[in-house]
């Protein structure tokens, strides 16, 4: 039977082209709507309603509008970066510690803890805003970064903890034990053995956390009323047309492109380096 | 930190009993509490506190009567479970069950589609070939676009004279009541979040050692068999976490139907939208009651999901019970992999033989 | 009372607050006192002129500066930010730029301060219909700064080609004109009329206009629902028949302002009901509009004569939780002044509330639609001024949307709406 089994590589066109075809289909599926976003952003505002597949004439007016001085969009991007970056780092640190604890230590109520953590992801987000606003007004957190960071952190933690726990649990314990025999402290063993091995999981958690925090809108809107601290998403929601009733679709799409592309490029650039860096300390 | 994880222990049950005694000591518990405290503190402050205040809120009602000057009488009245009972009464009840059905429908359809697509994406991303980075980036794109913007984008695509209608050559009024509005939400949601599952599954795939596949290849296992008997079981923990969180999110779906189709449309009204509608009209008691009902529903679904499929996700309980089942050799993978591939290879041989390829 | 307030303290989550002095006193016209810096919560400043106006105020009032707090573009989101802040008794927003339909809810909840009429010296100079929008139970809670009224845009070129000289004054004339134009070469493939019929606030506006224009009403003078009448039925049936006969294109059920403007600008519509903002956009010669210079405006058509528009626009109100309310009052008067309104109209084309500006020759030259708009606004009906406006408008939309999209029995729809409104407007 093994003889009949199709051989990989030079095993006929289907075998060779099927994955490529799959790749093409998936890439087109993912990018076609995004393409529409990009071309919509690249039309002249006066051609906003056009359905032409390629914008003609081509214009970067929408992008200029996005960065027009009064919008404060540049500052918004910076604020988004500060919030999402801090959330990602904190989530990873706190989440990894918690996940490692849950994966390796044996103690009572472990399932209860896991259940409590995920329970916090079950309440409709829109119902959290008013109590949180009251709380943050009381503790004078309005118009502060922490008013956006802490809620985003709490939204990101459940997934991070659960996901990392499932990764850590699959890591071979023997390696840590061996490391500890060699004189590593448990913390060192965790850092030098487990994290590198679980790098794909850690990295994915980082991406997902960053994007989720980067895209958070409701809390960022409700907890701030100063332009200088608002995130890019909040600024986008304030875009208007020339009169208030006409919708500035072109500049909204341009802003969408501006907040998406750097994110994707950053992930592309960093992934090799980060994964490589994390793996470097690991087992050979 | 000398505790031995059940992961490594699973295949050998004999030495387990004695070690368990050591593991259940005060020190471990305290250490665990210390290490978990930051997580629990953040969650307690930002989520648990509002949830508890919402639970209390749901037992009160306010702002329902006007005084003789036309001012709303301030203060809240304790109404017990009235806010909950009202949900199921008459027209409101009809609306609730419709929203309940929509929410469930969206969750089942979207999560199934997203899982299939997401796994396919992960497998493709995992294949080593040139331009993999580009593929990965393009798959990341839908997930990276802010929901606010992507909902607008899809609204634009699905307009009466939008590109979607131009492509299919007929005028479908997507935002009107009916199957088409449901479909538009499903298309947009699947597009946006299949990459989420894809990314998490990819990470799971990347931790599978190449030896496992090589062994399977040597044994001549078919592609399908390799996938169902090796890949799928090995990525199961990552996949289950991804699917579980997608279920939680889709059950709370709000933005897409709200922006894409609009509020108060029977075809796409979800439970979150009902809660929002109450809060929007400043009826915070009923809003909290809706939110709580949804919360309970989500919790029940999540519990059932973990019970039925997710032994590996929080499988500690089962692992502790000798003969608790559910393991089926899913946990020995790393160990076996680390020791070399013979066991897996044997498995693969059995698989391919049984398959009659 | 004691029980009520202790329970109120229990329900901390929504911050309903303790029973202050204001609820018992009858009149909540707390003195507008205090001077110092304030904030203005508004949707985004579209033209930059608002900031320009603020700069003018700030340079002459260095100790009472106004800071602009920009809210999202979406009106519902603006309202929600204001409500959330009021729920928490936050003083973040001093002056609120409020949609005219929010007045009753905000006033009844005492989120905004009553304004004694003698504090607004120019009140008599403003269009009376707009001042009414800022009142709740005959007391003033805001000052109207901008207004808005519906206009009938029509293709003057095509009407002329079909030998029609005047814009239609009644709905029947409008339909007859469509027949005539359809027979001309230029009218081929065009739809007759569209307004805004998506299920949102615009549908309430269009439905109210149809009902009011046919001689009906939604609530009567005393605020009681009165929509189950032959007149209201006639109004609803006009729209329903429009959809049935194709005079209103099917796609119009998905139209908001922008979609309908696009259809008109693309030359697909002979008549369009929309707001004044369309005028300058549809006249753009940069290629975005195919009908620049080919259209004109007229008052909305009615059953037997000119129709009745719904009233739009924004009132400026003072948050009850604001500090420096005296400054806030002065600032509102500044914004309401003739000079500022004139400046604002010239730069932003937002309809003013200062009556005499509509007759200003220079402005009329710049905005040729001003006379029609004046007529539209002067005779306009406010949408129901009720505390539970959110529920009322949702009920209206439900009834109208079902009647238009499913062609359900209009009589039954209005009867059901009447019942629903009665339960919502009992107080």
TrEMBL record, chain A:
Keywords tagged on the record: Cell membrane, Membrane, Transmembrane, Transmembrane helix, Transport
Membrane topology, record value: Multi-pass membrane protein
InterPro entries registered for this protein in UniProt: BP-dep_ABC_trans_perm (IPR050901), MetI-like (IPR000515), MetI-like_sf (IPR035906)
Pfam families found in the cross-reference section: BPD_transp_1 (PF00528)
Keyword NADP: no
GO biological process: transmembrane transport
GO CC, one annotated term: plasma membrane
Transmembrane segments: 17-38, 77-100, 112-133, 145-164, 193-214, 249-270
Principal place of residence: membrane
Family: Belongs to the binding-protein-dependent transport system permease family.
Protein name, UniProt field: Carbohydrate ABC transporter membrane protein 2 (CUT1 family)
From TrEMBL, chain B:
Gene Ontology biological-process annotations: transmembrane transport
Primary residence: membrane
TM region(s), chain numbering: 31-52, 105-125, 137-157, 287-306
Record keywords, A-Z: Cell membrane, Membrane, Transmembrane, Transmembrane helix, Transport
Key word Transport present: yes
InterPro entries attached to this UniProt entry: MetI-like, MetI-like_sf
Transmembrane in keyword set: yes
Membrane-topology annotation of the record: Multi-pass membrane protein
Protein family (similarity comment): Belongs to the binding-protein-dependent transport system permease family.
Protein name per UniProt: Carbohydrate ABC transporter membrane protein 1 (CUT1 family)
Native source species: Kribbella rubisoli
Automatic annotation (TrEMBL), chain C:
Chain positions covered by the region annotation Disordered: 14-49
Entry keyword set: Signal, Sugar transport, Transport
Database matches in Pfam families: SBP_bac_1
Domain of life of the organism encoding this protein: Bacteria
Cited InterPro entries: Bact_solute-bd_prot1, SBP
Keyword Transport tagged: yes
Similarity comment: Belongs to the bacterial solute-binding protein 1 family.
Annotated protein name in UniProt: Multiple sugar transport system substrate-binding protein
